[in-house]
Amino acid sequence: MVASFVGGFDGTLRDYENRRMHEVKLSDGIITLSPLRLDDVQAHLTGEDELLVRWLNGGHGTREGIEAYFRHCREQWDTAGPLRAFGIRAGAGEALAGTIDLRFAGEGLTPGQVNVAYGLYPSWRGRGLATRAVLLVSQYAASEGGEEAVIQVEPENPGSAAVARRAGFTPGRQTHTKDGTRFDWYIRDLRVDTPVTTC
């Protein structure tokens, strides 16, 4: 799979250095990733279900909380901060199907490691879209200097582990949070091509 970087690039990924980073748009022809924006809030609230709350969000969202988070995401794009949060968009109208974010710094990460976290809304699951999104953000992370992508998965979440494996990630170490939650790490070297399966 080859990603297209849409939005006026002249062949190099560094062209956007003179543009606002929140204008980045990534596509593989099936899905498009672009930064989250305030007009995504209602779609996110509508799409949130118990699986997203359990595995990704940590609690039910409120309009005010989601708006504040999306503003924070926008600020991170504007300042080239360590968080790059994308909406996963699909279909002719690029409907919001879920979210995926990269964190270029964070607890437990070493320099060069980039954490990848993702979630799809129920009606979009089971179509291979999460795997496609992981592949696109992995290419973007590599273009931004990331050397190794990390997906942290709770053992009780086999769906997320399957996405990681299909995207060419391999099992790594296990970690525990302060509250004792175990995470299995899946890692992918971003400096080499890795065979992937999108279905």
Give a short synopsis of this structure.
The protein has 199 residues and is an alpha+beta fold.
Please describe the structure with a list of short key phrases separated by commas or semicolons:
single chain, 199 residues, 28% helix, globular, disordered N terminus
- The average pLDDT value, as a whole number, equals 85
Care to count the β-strands? Answer: 9
Secondary-structure element order, as H and E? EEEHHHEEEHEHEE
Main beta sheet: strand number and arrangement?
Answer: 9 strands, mixed
Strand order of the largest sheet: 1-2-3-4-5-6-7-9-8
Distance separating the two termini: 12 Å
User: Helix count, per DSSP?
Assistant: 5
Structural classification: alpha+beta
Poorly predicted parts: 1-19
Could you estimate the helical fraction of the residues in percent?
25-40%
How large is the radius of gyration?
Answer: 16 Å
Indicate the overall shape.
globular
What fraction of residues sit in β-strands?
A: 25-35%
